[in-house]
Design a protein that fits this description.
It comes from Halomonas cerina. This protein has 229 residues and is of the alpha/beta class. Helices cover 34% and strands 17% of the residues. The longest helix is centred in the N-terminal third of the chain and has 16 residues. Bound molecules: S-adenosylmethionine. The site of S-adenosylmethionine has 20 residues, from strand 2, helix 5 and helix 8.
C-alpha cells in the first residue's frame, strides 16, 4: 500500500511577488557556480553512452528519483534514448526492475548537468520535470526551478518541456517564468493520471486524493537565453 500524503500548504496565496525579479536577474547575471567534478564525470559517461546509441532523439527525465519514470518513458518512446538524472544515490539504487537498453540513470546535480548538456549542444526532444521538490516556504523561492538562476539554461535546451506537480502554484509560477523569459505562453491544466502512473510520487499524491497539475510547452532551442554566452 502506498502511504498517504498531505497536500502542500504554503503561506503563499498567489505567485511569489519576487518571481519576476528573480527571472529578470537569472536572465541578466551568469550563474558562476563551478561545475562539480562528480557531475562532470557523470556527464562524460552519459555523453559517451549517448554517442554509442547513434542519432536518436533525446528525452531527459530531470529529478527522476528511483528512475521508474525513466524506465516507463524508455518504453513509451522506443525510438529515443532516455536519460534519468538525480542527485540521490540512495533513490537511484533502489530496484525497480531492469533498465531498458535505451535508458540510462545518472547520479548528478541537475544545476551542473543542464549547463554541461547545453554547452555540449544537446537538444532534448522531450524534457520532463516530474514532481520537483516544491519548497513551499516563500523564503525558498530561489530553490524552486522557476526562481533558480539555472532557469534560463533549462529553457534554452528547448524541446517539449513537461512539468508536473501536486502544487498548482508551482506550475503557475513556472508558466509565468516561461512566458517572461521566452515569450511562449504555457497553459496550466489539471491532470488525471488514471492507472498509468509515471512516478511513485504521482501515484502517492493521486491515491491520497490530491489533484495533480501540469504544463506542457514546446520551446525553441535558444542558447542565447543564458547570460554570458
Ligand atoms: C519529489 S522527488 C520526485 C522524484 C520523481 N520525479 C517522482 O516523481 O517520483 C524530487 C527529486 O528531485 C531530486 N533533485 C532535487 N534537486 C536536484 C538536483 N539539484 N539535482 C539532481 N536531482 C535533484 C531529488 O533527489 C528527488 O529525487
Amino acid at each position: 500500500m502506498t502511504p498517504r500524503s498531505r497536500a502542500i500548504t504554503s503561506r503563499q496565496t498567489g505567485p511569489h511577488e519576487d518571481l519576476s525579479r528573480r527571472v529578470t536577474r537569472a536572465l541578466a547575471h551568469p550563474l558562476r557556480k563551478p561545475i562539480a567534478v562528480h557531475t562532470r564525470e557523470a556527464f562524460d559517461q552519459a555523453r559517451l553512452w549517448r554517442a554509442e546509441q547513434g542519432e536518436r532523439p533525446l528525452v531527459l527525465d530531470a529529478g527522476c528519483g528511483v528512475g521508474l519514470s525513466t524506465r516507463r518513458l524508455a518504453v513509451r518512446f522506443p525510438e529515443a534514448v532516455v536519460i534519468g538524472i538525480d542527485r540521490s544515490a540512495d533513490r537511484l539504487s533502489r530496484d525497480h526492475g531492469p533498465l531498458p537498453d535505451n535508458a540510462l540513470l545518472v547520479r548528478a546535480d541537475l544545476v551542473d548537468f543542464w549547463r554541461l548538456a547545453l554547452a555540449e549542444g544537446w537538444r532534448p526532444a522531450r524534457h520532463f520535470l516530474l514532481y520537483p521538490n516544491p519548497y513551499p516556504k516563500p523564503a525558498h523561492l530561489k530553490m524552486r526551478w522557476q526562481g533558480h538562476p539555472v532557469l534560463p539554461t533549462i529553457l534554452a535546451l528547448g524541446g517539449c518541456l513537461e512539468l508536473r506537480s501536486n502544487w498548482r502554484l508551482y506550475v503557475e509560477e513556472f508558466a509565468l517564468a516561461v512566458a517572461q523569459a521566452t515569450g511562449v505562453a504555457a497553459t496550466v491544466e489539471a491532470f488525471e493520471p488514471g492507472a498509468a502512473f509515471l512516478t511513485p510520487f504521482e501515484r502517492k499524491y493521486h491515491e491520497s486524493g490530491q489533484p495533480l497539475w501540469r504544463l506542457v510547452v514546446e520551446l525553441p532551442y535558444r542558447p542565447a537565453l543564458v547570460p554570458g554566452t
